[in-house]
Design brief:
Length: 112
């Protein structure tokens, strides 16, 4: 692996670059909150070789949205469900926009 390969990961939204402690600090929340949204299956952090949770920038954005809802009084389980539904809606809208423009999203080949 070259230095260029290492630096290119910094631009990857899915690269698990943040430890649980750092993620909690960046979000202004507790590690317990991150565990709770993991248990609610909102995000699934990757694990380091030592078994420690590692979070990506994308996961931090999802966690930040959940925290926003929880801070507004929404129970954590409901906040997680809302974030999942928002994500599904965004994906459906993206696919609809592609269809309107005459492009097709990547599809899986038909089953044999």
């Amino acid at each position: 692996m070259t230095a260029d390969d290492s630096f290119s990961r910094l631009d990857d939204d899915d690269y698990p670059a943040y430890t649980m402690g750092r993620a909690a600090e960046m979000l202004g929340t507790t590690q317990g909150f991150l565990r709770a949204i993991g248990e609610a299956r909102l995000i699934t952090p990757l694990r380091s070789t030592g078994g420690h949770r590692r979070y990506s920038r994308y996961q931090l954005r999802v966690a930040a949205r959940a925290r926003e809802l929880v801070d507004g009084g929404t129970p954590i389980e409901a906040a997680c469900r809302i974030v999942i539904l928002e994500d599904q809606l965004e994906e459906a809208q993206r696919i609809n926009a592609e269809h309107r423009q005459g492009t097709k999203p990547p599809s899986t080949p038909p089953a044999a």
